[in-house]
C-alpha cells in the first residue's frame, strides 16, 4: 500500500503508525482517514503484529484533529467504518494500541488517543476537545469516552469549557498513563509495548476483550459469560495456554507463538 499521509514501521511484533501531515499539525482529512483505516485493518489482521503505537510526525503535534481549513475550502468530509483515523469506531480489535502523544492532541486528535488503550504523553503535550469553539461537538467518541475514563463531572469540566489540559493534569485526571520529557514519548511507548510483548499475546487479547465486553454489562453477567468471549476461548485453545505453565514449571522464559 502506497502511504501518503502516514508511515508504518514494524519492530518485531510492534507496529508503529505515524500520522504524517506535519505541515498542518497532523490534522486529518478524508483521504487520510481512509488510508489509516486500511493501515489499522492490516495491523488487526496480521498475526505477527501484537501491539500498535500511534504517534505524530514532528515535535509539535500528535494530531490537531479535523483539518478545518480543508473543510472550509470545500473539501469533502468523512471516514471509513473504523471512524476518525480508522480507529475511533474500531471496536473489534483486541490487540493493544498505545498513543505516544508528542505534542498537541486537539479534538479528533484527543479522540484518537482516547480510543487507544494507553496514553504516554510528553511534557509538552496538550489535550482538549475544543469543538464547541468552532460550532461542532466531539462526536468521534470524545463526548462518550472521556466521561467513561475520568468520570462525569471531570469530563463535563473539560468538554463544556473546551479548555486545554496539560500532560501533567491529564495524568492527575487519569487519562494519561505516563508523562515523559519532550521528545521521549515514542521511546517510552515502545518500552510499554515491549513489556506487553513479554506476555502471551493470546492472554493480552483475551484480557482486553474481557475488559471491554465486561464493562458493557453487569459484573455478575460479565463473570458468568466471560469464558464464552471469542478471544478467551481462543486463549484456552491455544499453544500459548500450554506453553505458559510448562515454561514456569521448567523455570525458563516462555516462547510465545501467539496461537
From TrEMBL:
GO molecular function: enoyl-CoA hydratase activity
Catalytic EC class: lyase
Keyword Hydrolase included in the entry's annotation: no
Domain of life: Bacteria
Stored PROSITE patterns: ENOYL_COA_HYDRATASE
Record key words, sorted: Lyase
Gene Ontology biological process terms, A to Z: fatty acid beta-oxidation
InterPro entries for this protein: ClpP/crotonase-like_dom_sf, Enoyl-CoA_hyd/isom_CS, Enoyl-CoA_hydra/iso, Enoyl-CoA_hydra_C
EC number, as in UniProt: 4.2.1.17
UniProt entry tagged with the keyword Lyase: yes
Pfam families xrefs: ECH_1 (PF00378)
TM region positions: none
Gene3D superfamilies tied to this protein: 2-enoyl-CoA Hydratase, Chain A, domain 1, Lyase 2-enoyl-coa Hydratase, Chain A, domain 2
Family the UniProt entry places it in: Belongs to the enoyl-CoA hydratase/isomerase family.
Protein name per UniProt: Enoyl-CoA hydratase
Gene source species: Bradyrhizobium archetypum
